[in-house]
Amino acid sequence: MKKIEAVIRPGRFEELKVALKTQGVTGMTTYNVMGRGKQQEVKQYYRGQELQVDLFPKLKIEIGCPDEQVEKIVQLILEICKTGQIGDGKIFIYPLEEVIRISSGEKNLDAL
Amino acid sequence: MKKIEAVIRPGRFEELKVALKTQGVTGMTTYNVMGRGKQQEVKQYYRGQELQVDLFPKLKIEIGCPDEQVEKIVQLILEICKTGQIGDGKIFIYPLEEVIRISSGEKNLDAL
Amino acid sequence: MKKIEAVIRPGRFEELKVALKTQGVTGMTTYNVMGRGKQQEVKQYYRGQELQVDLFPKLKIEIGCPDEQVEKIVQLILEICKTGQIGDGKIFIYPLEEVIRISSGEKNLDAL
Amino acid sequence: MKRKNIFILGIALLMVLIPRAVWASEGASPESNAIAIDAVWTLLAAFLVMFMQPGFALVEAGFIRAKNAANIIMKNVMDFAAGSIVYFLIGFAIMFGIDKAGIIGLSGFGMSGTFEHLGLSFPIWVFLMFQTVFAATAATIVSGAVAERIKFGSYLIFSVLITAVIYPVVGHWIWGGGWLASLGMIDFAGSTVVHSVGGWAALVGAFLLGPRLGKYSKDGKAAAIPGHNITLAALGVFILWFGWFGFNCGSTVSGTSPDIGLIAVNTNIAAAAGAVGAMLYSWIKYRKPDVTFTLNGALAGLVGITAGCASVNPMGAIIIGLLAGVLVTVSVQFLDNKLRIDDPVGAISVHGVCGAFGTAMVGLLAVDGGLFYGGGASLLLTQIIGIAAVFVWVIVASFIVFGAIKAVMGLRVSEEEELGGLDINEHGMNAYADFMIKS
Amino acid sequence: MKRKNIFILGIALLMVLIPRAVWASEGASPESNAIAIDAVWTLLAAFLVMFMQPGFALVEAGFIRAKNAANIIMKNVMDFAAGSIVYFLIGFAIMFGIDKAGIIGLSGFGMSGTFEHLGLSFPIWVFLMFQTVFAATAATIVSGAVAERIKFGSYLIFSVLITAVIYPVVGHWIWGGGWLASLGMIDFAGSTVVHSVGGWAALVGAFLLGPRLGKYSKDGKAAAIPGHNITLAALGVFILWFGWFGFNCGSTVSGTSPDIGLIAVNTNIAAAAGAVGAMLYSWIKYRKPDVTFTLNGALAGLVGITAGCASVNPMGAIIIGLLAGVLVTVSVQFLDNKLRIDDPVGAISVHGVCGAFGTAMVGLLAVDGGLFYGGGASLLLTQIIGIAAVFVWVIVASFIVFGAIKAVMGLRVSEEEELGGLDINEHGMNAYADFMIKS
Amino acid sequence: MKRKNIFILGIALLMVLIPRAVWASEGASPESNAIAIDAVWTLLAAFLVMFMQPGFALVEAGFIRAKNAANIIMKNVMDFAAGSIVYFLIGFAIMFGIDKAGIIGLSGFGMSGTFEHLGLSFPIWVFLMFQTVFAATAATIVSGAVAERIKFGSYLIFSVLITAVIYPVVGHWIWGGGWLASLGMIDFAGSTVVHSVGGWAALVGAFLLGPRLGKYSKDGKAAAIPGHNITLAALGVFILWFGWFGFNCGSTVSGTSPDIGLIAVNTNIAAAAGAVGAMLYSWIKYRKPDVTFTLNGALAGLVGITAGCASVNPMGAIIIGLLAGVLVTVSVQFLDNKLRIDDPVGAISVHGVCGAFGTAMVGLLAVDGGLFYGGGASLLLTQIIGIAAVFVWVIVASFIVFGAIKAVMGLRVSEEEELGGLDINEHGMNAYADFMIKS
Ligand SMILES: Nc1ncnc2c1ncn2[C@@H]1O[C@H](COP(=O)(O)OP(=O)(O)O)[C@@H](O)[C@H]1O
Ligand SMILES: Nc1ncnc2c1ncn2[C@@H]1O[C@H](COP(=O)(O)OP(=O)(O)O)[C@@H](O)[C@H]1O
Ligand SMILES: Nc1ncnc2c1ncn2[C@@H]1O[C@H](COP(=O)(O)OP(=O)(O)O)[C@@H](O)[C@H]1O
Fold first, then answer.
1. ipTM value of the model?
2. E42-427 belongs to which homologous superfamily?
3. What is the pTM of this model?
């Protein structure tokens, strides 16, 4: 099993969620993060003081899934979240050793 | 070493924290997330417009621990956070390669 | 590739960010967490009721990086975030299997 | 246009729009002017008192958790809305209708008939406006104590009934020519009439509901459940302080009264002393000056001075305020730890306890008739009788009403709804949709 | 110092600072006092109406998303600021200058010349102050409907022009001795003059801008975009309710008017009924009492009673309020789902629709002249003519102004700016820098 | 009951509760009515000024970080609470007691003795109420500039001393019959007396404390530390704007004064111009209209017009406002970047600098006596003498008081407490317990 972690533009999330659902992927965990890749700083003024904005609001989605679903999900994310501009986000894939559903105690693939 | 990640009902956290402490587990990192497993959408109305609520507030707990503690901690979580209803949450277990305590520079098991 | 996860004192972040940048490390994801290691509880009163504060606000930074950069980054974190007091934080290192840049579809080292 | 004809003035252009006879078309007289001053004063005071509604709403919202904020707001809006209508239809008649045996008024429902027996110089509407906002104040006190767990519908029903009946009966006794008025009880602006009534009803509500989930651990220790927005709660307190000038000074129902200045000073300085008292007490006791107790303390001072604001001097007001400030923190602790009655915002202590306290203090500190000023114990006794009578009536009536609601439709939301929050479960929304809420 | 010489009183010490002749140096008279009462009343009412500005700001801010909060706040500050100046320079002259053909006033720009034709007893400044805050109200209504997507600069220009021209023309027609005043139209405090003008301009603005990104899905279904702070929105509604007493009661421009009490009662009870109406309707229709509709309902009741607050009795006010409360929820749905005009805060429905509704209801419920009171249909007809004329004028004028702005500099921010929020993109900051904002 | 006997009216039922002789039991007269109008006006103005307290609290809270919000709120509550008591006991006597050598008043401590020398027509309490809220305003200005780092206890002590001594001395000089009053200085409602006093004390406090951690980088560049709630800050500005009508118009202490209308117009339009000035300036300079500067600009306009609100005409008010709006942004930058004095909310610039500026402008723009109106330079000179004298006194006195506090108990919290926030470290709680706070 793998954990897919995608950091995306918040504005893209709704569409992605719907698309994932049509593919049968409903399990996910999301939260807000601030992040930066190669995206450029932006200069702002607050009360006349320069303010380097170098972290941008992003949404992180975590999805635990069987190995064979990884590719499909990654494709979907690329499809929907790609605008081609820097700042689109990144996908990270980690090994996931064990999953347990708390309500039933089921494990691993049964738990996803 | 492993990282245990539990996504649970927020209302269960206080009790879990106390129980973990009695087992000598104090190290943990927590944050709020929105998530969904097989839990059903809920329909709400806001100003007369239908609003599909399909992400629910959960609390995520991360615990880095030695391999041999994993089972004990998972048992404890199951014990305390299980109501038997869908939405109870999930536990994910990941490999953890290295841990360093910043204040002392200690590593791995010493750092936990 | 590895994922470095550092949980640090929020007050140290600005300096760390600047230092990382001078080392060419800009990619990162950050968010607020509440956590505890061996740090002691603090007793507060709210409206005369005792309140055990046993989770403290911390900042979590995640950095995906090539294996060879790990050490440098860890050193930098230790340098800047270490006050020597308990509560300085912890660094966790995980295996990272794959990285994809959404804007270009590039993979792994190219995507970092 | 001659200067003299000021009564046919106004803006000539607007005159078309003014459909009714002006005050005294035959010209201005000292008498007509004095009436106008009284009407203007009373109305402006009424507006200030109306503005206390958001004050209450913010204090209550700020002191509870974010997941119930929209619900408490909604309760505050609706008790004023429903209360305004029901007081117009029923409450005013019970309170100021023609007296029956000193117990109740029974004429003028729906503002029909005559209110000549009130001997008002200005139109009855001015007086109704003023009394409506007072009635709403009594009702709104309850919502804080029963917050975070009472069903919205059940609350609304109680709210309507307190404004229609429970409060007006007390109002009649003390302000409507009833038996306590005859005894000579002094409750100038309503420490007892308004605040204690609200406070005691709150007590019954909180008692019947039981504490919020998680308020008491298995071993019975009370937990702190921090409020979600202290900034807004403080704004609420400031708004209440501001509105209270209307509450107390306006209770002269006369701008030509020479007392209005003293009443204002007394009101202000008692509030100030209440904040100081509560801050110092909490600083000593818990090693840090507690913010929410200080806020409660200011309100306690205000509630405490309300009965005697026209009877005591500023030194008396300072004493009342200081003591009320201390009393409220002691009382909150007592309810929390000893009685185990869970009152999230301290409404019972602020309004019930300090209302009674302030009413009693008039018996001691009234410059004219108070025990400490050589007036003997008779006023004090009257005050105590009044306090006790109102306590009994409100407790009994509230038990009946809350009890009946509980029996018929239930008072409390389900455990799951309480955990998830009343906002989402009773109203299908969140007060702060864009913010991450901590669990 | 003799009692009599009250006009040379004040504080002797401060006298140095009072540079101008006092009211009537020859001594107080019933006439001078009556003028003073009128001036005091009108000014205090003006202050209350000015305080409606933050009421609007909070309702609008609370009903939209956090990422646009500072921007909407800024618009509300600036429409009042710029509006105050421009109304002083231009608007007042058009509204209350010497009449040309019943259409427009054309004297007194920059408050020059004489305003004797107004027949005011108190100084013109008192009247200017009162009218300025009214003008600002009309302007501020628009910002809510065009929120979250209009360019700041474009908004400002429209805001200046509505205060300088569009609103004053209507004001002249109805309050400035224009043709609708001559017809006998009753719009006591401005359901049409102020609220409908704002509402119809909002309609044009929202229409020309188009809906916010994400408001309508590809299949045309309207999405809910929850507001970010319902507590503050509710505070805004309470502030408006409070300020509205100044709006309606102050429109007597006379504290010696015997009507002020009734107007206050009508105002309050219509707001109350509006909240009740909207709450009940939404409860029945959506199974849960909707908080934001209830808040809109209270405002709808207030807008509805504004025209007739001095003409109907409290029963009439309750009817107007209840119906307005229901009407506003129906209208919001209609705009959202049928017309697909995206009005984030419901401004068009609250002010435009309920303003027209309230004005029409005067024709039915005016105790003196209303159809239901045997006054025949003539008043109703006049009212409807007035409503229609104002609708046409405002729609046409707003189309021209908004259209010109759109053509010259554009109305709407870029897609990217809209997604990122107007706060950061138009003002370089966030309203809530320390908080995690949910996406 | 006869119409004439209006003075024994009121509500018959309530009469029991009114313990004191009414205004003039022998009947209403033009004189008694005029006094009543003055008293009513002055009291209502005092209430409005009191309401400025939450205005200050919200501006200050909104402009600082969330972790210090409860602390600043607490400071604002307590400076008003403690200030009300201490001004009653000491301050009023120093300000309005019988004059000693033009320097200080020294009679009437604790409101004992007579205040006949003030020649007031209405009871002294009315005047005390009005003056109390002014005194509190001066004190509360300081808290913003020293926010986020001063110890709570140390702040309280300074706050008490400014209200007890520093402010009343200035007040005596200019309003209490002191030497500046004799020179003919015009500071109608207190640009200097109230605002500059607060502003200069704030300057000393901020200077002695040093900047917040992280305000200046190692290379001395100033960092932006964004405020946590711009919506609430804007609400605070609106509340201040609203309360300022009481501040300026109420300073006639007379509702029968014919100036109140002009004062209101001047006050409003100067605030408007201040907002416009600051917005335009920041728009040009930083390419975006800065929200917090615009808010500061409105306040700057208000502070600026306060001295001359009864002496200039509306055109003058616009000029003062516009310039003050620009001045405040320049001054904030200057303090931040050149003087390196860290004033989180801009209090020194808004109140100190613009207060002095506004006072000086009276010398130019006073219709009666101003340089631009042919009045010569003498008034201007007097104004400048006054500004300078007050500056010297306040700076010296504040240095002594703040310096003594620093020596004895320290002014500043520890580095760790500052980083963690004053809320948790000084009061053991968080203002926003349920929200995730960004680091
Ligand atoms: N090396 C990294 N480690 C952790 N998170 C990263 C890394 N690079 C990017 N991110 C996350 O992904 C988000 C989007 O990155 P983006 O700016 O699109 O990356 P890039 O510019 O490299 O394509 C960032 O805001 C950040 O949260
Ligand atoms: N496949 C998954 N990937 C990531 N997070 C998940 C997944 N499944 C569930 N979660 C997280 O666990 C929480 C609880 O899930 P729950 O609804 O109890 O799951 P289930 O219905 O599958 O038992 C969800 O809200 C979500 O945050
Ligand atoms: N075992 C652990 N698992 C997960 N997170 C941890 C663990 N130990 C510490 N942390 C995180 O690191 C933060 C800093 O820990 P700290 O108190 O410095 O640890 P220690 O006291 O063990 O040195 C904690 O607030 C918590 O968020």
1. 0.94
2. Ammonium transporter AmtB like domains (1.10.3430.10)
3. 0.94
